[in-house]
Design brief:
Elements: E1 21-23, H1 27-41, E2 47-52, H2 55-61, E3 64-66, H3 72-82, E4 93-97, H4 101-111, H5 117-125, E5 131-135, H6 138-141, E6 145-151
Parallel strand pairs: 3-4
Antiparallel strand pairs: 1-5, 2-6, 4-5
Helix pairs in contact: 4-5
Length: 153
């Protein structure tokens, strides 16, 4: 669906960076996510909404958590969100690598205790991880300006 005006909605599953409006700078990743949603819902067309924002203004105006790489802090943050036990500080913007389907198996091996943190991070470092930026407050979302849509018809 086209999302000209993003908004925060209650989610029914646990995601990498918690509740929020998820975006990515990677066009291929956005199209892949749109296709997954389309196949799950079986209606409409895969659609990607495109936005622009003044990153320096948004990042300096909002409470930002930034992960440069999939390190131990990132793994702990994602893991506790994915299993629904995160109890730390809430950030308006969270930027960092996506624990997408390509890394899901590695992530689950860590979650079940099969892999240690060190082994998990070693495996993740050889994967090509894309970044995501999550907007988790109305103030953060206000920096997004809808520009266009991309459709895979």
């Amino acid at each position: 669906m086209v999302v000209e005006q993003p908004k925060l909605i209650q989610q029914n599953r646990f995601l990498d960076f918690g509740m929020g409006f998820y975006t990515t700078e990677n066009k291929e990743q956005a199209i892949s996510f749109a296709n997954k949603v389309y196949h799950r819902r079986q209606e409409g067309n895969p659609t990607v909404s495109v936005y622009e924002m003044d990153e320096s203004t948004a990042f300096s105006s909002c409470d930002l958590l930034r992960f440069a790489a999939p390190d131990e802090k990132w793994l702990d943050f994602v893991y506790t969100h994915r299993i629904g036990i995160y109890s730390g500080k809430r950030f308006e913007l969270v930027y960092g690598p996506v624990a997408d389907d390509d890394v899901y198996e590695t992530f689950m091996l860590f979650a079940t205790g099969t892999l240690t943190k060190k082994e998990t991070l070693k495996r993740l470092k050889i994967k090509r991880l894309f970044n995501q930026l999550v907007f988790s407050s109305e103030r953060a979302i206000s920096f997004l300006k809808f520009t266009q849509i991309l459709r895979e018809d």
